[in-house]
Amino acid sequence: MENNGNAADIVSESDSMDDNNQMDTNSSQNETADEPEVSLDLEALEIELNHSKIQSMDMLSVLTRTECLGLRNNVIKKIEGLNQLVTLRELELYDNQITKIENLDALVNLEVLDLSFNRIRKIENLENLVNLKKLFLINNKISKIENVSELVNLELLELGSNRIRVIENLDNLVNLKSLFVGKNKITKLDNLYPLKNLELLSIQSNRIIKIEGLDQNHNLDQLYISNNGISVIEGLEQNKKLQTLDIAVNRLKKLQNIEHLAQLEELWCNDNGVDDWKDLELLKELPNLRTVYFERNPIASHQMYRKKIMLISPQITQIDATMCRS
Q1: pLDDT in tens, 193-220
Q2: Share of the chain above pLDDT 90, in %
Q3: Any idea which UniProt keywords this protein has (predicted)?
Q4: Secondary structure class of 27 (helix, strand, coil)
């Protein structure tokens, strides 16, 4: 609309500045008002502040006795205010807006750290957390496994749903028992040989086309490698302690090379291309097998599908999602 110079339409520069300052003040006050008042029990060993709309961690510096601190589902953007919390054993910052791992140096007694569902791009600044046993970094924007060599007591590492392409830099994690790297962009099972105590490996929904590199992982008892591009079951000769093998949703045409897995209890092989009933004869060699999944394989279209499996392996108690009748 054209300005005709009427006095009512003309605002002096000073008036405009005053209005802007007032708006800034109001905005600041509104932001402060949005920050909820949180009551803290200074004597409590466990404190849960989940779903509390917390923006800043500065107020937490008084929790010098706290051992477990939960801050799930808040709006925290920066890790801070923790230098006095040396007694902390568990810290949960799941589902916030954190972009950088920082300011954790004082937490030398920390055993569990959960930074899942944030906006972190790099694993860093963890070298002082030598007592850490569990580290969760699910659903961030991490592209490389790095800077974890000092975490020699780590038993569980969860890196699912990131942007990782290579398994690497895990040589010093000799106590690691569980490694989760599902939903990444990994193309090869590699660099796992130092993990002699590894019991669980989850590498679902990646780009693996061959089972390999597990020769030194003799203690592996759970392998989840579904939703990849594997065409042959192989490379498990030294993994005789396997109790669960999930190889569903791959490109298998045959069931083979698992008859030596005498401790196997669960076999998930659904959504593949197994079409020869003769392949299933090897199930007779698995005395501890209790659960099998073969649905959405060609063999599953047979009218006597369930009956045939039970005749081959009578000890099985569950076929697909249905329990077997005794």
Answers
A1: 999 999 999 999 999 999 999 999 999 9
A2: 86
A3: Leucine-rich repeat, Nucleus, Repeat
A4: helix
**Global pTM?**
0.88
- Is the pLDDT score of 2 beyond 50? no
Q: What is the pLDDT of residues 232-266, one digit of tens each?
A: 999 999 999 999 999 999 999 999 999 999 999 99
**How far is residue 238's CA from residue 198's CA, in Å, rounded to a whole number?**
13
Q: How far apart are CA 279 and CA 256, in angstroms?
A: 7
Q: Using the structure block, give the residue that is written with the tokens 């099985």.
A: 316
Answer yes or no: are the C-beta atoms of 225 and 241 closer than 8 Å.
Answer: no
Cα–Cα distance list, 248 to 190, 204, 224, 236, 277 (Å):
21, 9, 9, 16, 18
Q: Are strands 90-92 and 112-114 parallel, antiparallel or unpaired?
A: parallel
The helices-and-strands tally (H runs, E runs) of the chain is 2, 14
d(CA 181, CA 270): 21
As given in the structure block, the two tokens for residue 315 are 């000890």
Dihedral, CA atoms, 237, 243, 249, 251, nearest 10 degrees? 20
Counting Cα atoms < 13 Å in the Cβ hemisphere of 22 gives 6
Nearest to 178 by CA among 152, 197, 205: 197
Q: List the structure tokens of 264.
A: 């196997």
Greatest Cα pair distance in the chain: 97
Dihedral-angle region of residue 126 (phi above 0 means left; psi in -120 to 50 means alpha; beta otherwise): alpha
